[in-house]
TrEMBL record:
Naturally occurring in which organism (per UniProt): Deinococcus ficus
PROSITE patterns per record: ABC_TM1F, ABC_TRANSPORTER_1, ABC_TRANSPORTER_2
Record field: transmembrane: 74-93, 113-132, 190-211, 217-238, 302-325, 337-362
Lineage, broadest ranks: Bacteria, Thermotogati, Deinococcota, Deinococci, Deinococcales
Domain ABC transmembrane type-1: 75-363
Protein name: Xenobiotic-transporting ATPase
Amino acid sequence: MVRTGLTPGGGGGSESGDDEACGGWPGRVEPELRGGPDQLRPPREAKADPGVKLNPGDLLETLRMVWRASPRHTLVYAVTSLTGSALPAANLYVGKLLLDEVARAAQGNVTYAALLTLLAVQVGLTVLGSLLSTFQSAAQQLLGDSLQHAVSRRILDKAAGMSVESFENADTYDKLQQAYREVGTRPLGVALQLIGLIGAVVTLVSVGALIAQLGVWVLPLILLASLPGVWVSNRFGVENYRMLRWQTHDARVQNYLGSLLTSDTLVKEVRLFGFEPYLLSRWREYYLGFRRQLEDIVRRRAAWGFGASLVSALLIGLASALILRRAADGMISVGDFSVFILGIAQVQGTVSGFLNGLSGIYQNLLYMRNLFGFLELPDRDLDAGEVWKGPIHTIEFEGVGFRYPLTDRDVLNGVNFTVRRGQALALVGENGAGKTTIVKLLTRLFEPTAGRILLNGLDATRFSPRSVQREMSIIFQDFGQYQMTVQDNVAIAEVARLEDVAGVEQAIGRAGAAYVDTLPEGLGTRLGRLFQGGRQLSGGQWQRLALARLYFRDASVLVFDEPTAALDARAEFETMEALRGQARERITFLISHRFSTVRLADFIIVLEGGVVTEAGSHAELLARDGKYAALYHLQASGYASDAARPEPAGAGPKP
Ligand SMILES: Nc1ncnc2c1ncn2[C@@H]1O[C@H](COP(=O)(O)OP(=O)(O)OP(=O)(O)O)[C@@H](O)[C@H]1O
C-alpha cells in the first residue's frame, strides 16, 4: 500500500506562479490515486477552462479569514503600510526644497543652518521609512504563519468530517489538492494586495499632486505609459492559472507515478518486475506535456512584454520632451525637474503596483475559489440523528441494495438476512461478489441505496452513524499500519482510553500478539519504517496488532474482513478458536476465503454478483450440494491431493 498523504504547498506569487507549472514528483506530495490504469492516460493539452469564475463573496470571506487568523498582525501591517505610502511624496517634496535651496545658496541667499534643517527632515523620513518597513515585514511574516496554520486546520477539519463516500471520488482528490496548494500565500496575498491598493492610491494622489504642478499633460502621459505592461502581466497571469488548473489531474497522475518509485512498500515489486524505466518514461511524458504548455506561455508573454515596454518608453520620451521644453523656457526650477525625473519612476511603479494589485487580487481570488470549493463540499454529519445507546442484539438486512456513487451498476441487490447476538455470520463469495460492501453498509460508512438495515428492530438511519459505529469494532482487509507506538496502534480504537495500558495488554493477549514482549521498548516501541527508530513488523504481526485494536474496543458487533489472510496456519487456528470463545456475547461478521475458517460460523451467506444465492449452516449448505458445497470441496480436494501426492525424489528435510 502506498501511504502517501498531503502536505501544504506554497501558492507561488500572485502574478505568475510559474514555479508550479512543471510541478510533479519530487516536490509535491500528492494524494494516492484511486482507480485503475485507465486513469493513467497521457497528459492532456491545455485548453480554455470554462470553470474560471469569480465569486464576489470570496473577497469578503478571504479578508475575514485573514483577520481571524491574527487581528493584531493584520492591524500592524495595515497601519505601517498605509503610513509608509505617504512617504514617497514627502521625500520628493523635501528633495525638491533641498535642491532649490542649494540653487539659491549658490547665489548666497541661504544659510548653512537652513540647509542642515532640510537635510535633517530628509534623514528623519528615511529613518521613519525603515522603522515602518521593519514592523511591516515582521507583521507580514507572523500573519502568514498564523494564516497557514488556520487554513490548514480548516482543510483538515473539513477532510475529517467528509464521508468515506467522498473519498471514493477522484474529483474530491483534485479539489483537496487544489485547496492545499492555496494554503501558502493566496489568502495573505489578497489581504496584502488590498492594503497595497489603498496605499497606492495614497501615494498616487500625493505624488500626482506634486507632478500635476509641472503641467496638465505630464501626469496623464506617465499614467498611460504604465498600462501596457500591466495589461500583459494580467493577461498571462490568468492564462497561467487556467493552465495550472487544467493540469491538476495530470499532476496527480505524475506524482502517483513518482510515488511508485519512492514507495518503501512497493520497492520489492517494482524491482522484481523491473518496470522502473516504464514508470520513469511515463513520469517524464507528463513533465514534457507540462513543459510544452509552459514554453508556449513564456514565449508569448515575452513577446507581448517587449511590445509593452516599447510603447511605454515612447510615452515617457514624449513626456520628457514636453517638460524639457518648459525647462528651456525657464519655467521650472531644478527642484521641479527633480520631482519630474524621480516622480516618473514613482508614479510608474505605483500605477503598475496598483493595477498588478488589482489583477493579483483577481487571480488570487480565483485560486481561493478552489479552496472555498473544497470547503463547501457537502459534509456528512456523523452525529446527525438519535444517539444509539446500549449493545446491538440483532441486525437485519431487508432487501438491501447498493450502487457506488458515480457508477451505473448495483453491486448489491435485495440482500436479506438476520443475525443475532451470540451468532457468527460468515460471508462467502468470489472476488467482487459484494462482501466488503455489505460490511461498509453494516458499519454505516455508506447508506444503502435500496432497502433498509434494522438494528434491534429499529431503522438504522434514525441513529447517528457515529453512535452506531461506537458499538462496532472491525478489522479491515486493508487494515491500518500506523507509524506510531504499539500502545497507540491498539488504543487508537478508543482514544478516550489511550493511556489504558492494562486494556492494551489484554487485547494484545487475546489477539495472540505475544511478540510485542520481545520488542525493545515493549508497548512503547515505535513501529514502521517511516520514522527514525521505527521497528518494522511482518504482515502477520501487523495483522495481529490490528486484531488487538479490534478487541480493545468494547463493542457488541465484531467484523472480521479477511482476518487471517496474513496469518500462518497455527495463528489462524488459534485466532479462530479464540474468536469462537470470545464472540458469544456479541454478533460476529466474518469474511473469509478459507473454508476452514468459514465453517466455524453459525450461519453462512453465499453471495454471487451482489445477490444472496445460498444461506444456512455449514452442514446445511453441504447437504444442499450447491455453490458452497462445490467451493468447499474444491478447497478441501486441494488439501487432500497435496496429502496424497507422492514426495518427489530427493525432497524432504536436508540433513
Ligand atoms: N469504491 C468503489 N466504487 C465503485 N465500485 C466499487 C467500489 N468498491 C467496490 N466496488 C465494486 O463493488 C463490487 C463489490 O466489491 P466488494 O469489495 O464488496 O467485493 P468483495 O466480495 O469484498 O471482494 P473481495 O473478495 O475481492 O474482497 C465489485 O464489483 C467492485 O468492483
